[in-house]
Design goal:
Elements (H helix, E strand, L loop, with lengths): L15 H6 L10 H11 L16 H6 L1 H16 L4 H5 L1
Length: 91
C-alpha cells in the first residue's frame, strides 16, 4: 500500500484499458499478481487505492511469522527478477 505495489492479497481491480495496456495476467502458476502490477508500474499506470476492506487469509503470516514471511517474499521477488521460473518459485 505504502509503496504503491499492491499484490493479490490486496484485491486487485483494473480498468479494461489499463489491463490490456499492461498485457493482462500472465499464464503462470505463481506471481501473476506481481507480474501485472510490475508491468503496470513500467507503463507508469498508477494504482488507485480504495478505502474499502477485503478479507484474505493470514495463514502464512501466522504460521511462519512476520519477519520470515517478509524475507521469503523478498527472496521470491528477487529470484523472479533474476529469471527463476514461476514453477520453481512456487515449489
Amino acid at each position: 500500500k505504502y509503496l504503491h505495489l499492491p499484490y493479490g492479497d490486496q484485491c486487485l481491480f483494473f480498468h479494461r484499458d489499463s489491463y490490456k495496456e499492461s498485457g493482462g495476467y500472465k499464464h503462470v502458476p505463481f506471481m501473476e499478481d506481481y507480474a501485472i502490477v510490475n508491468a503496470q508500474k513500467k507503463k507508469r499506470i498508477k494504482p488507485l487505492l480504495l478505502n474499502g476492506k477485503v478479507t484474505t487469509s493470514g495463514r502464512r503470516w501466522k504460521e511462519n511469522g512476520v519477519i520470515p514471511t517478509l524475507l521469503l517474499n523478498q527472496l521470491i521477488i528477487f529470484s523472479w527478477h533474476l529469471g527463476v521460473k514461476p514453477q520453481t518459485l512456487k515449489g
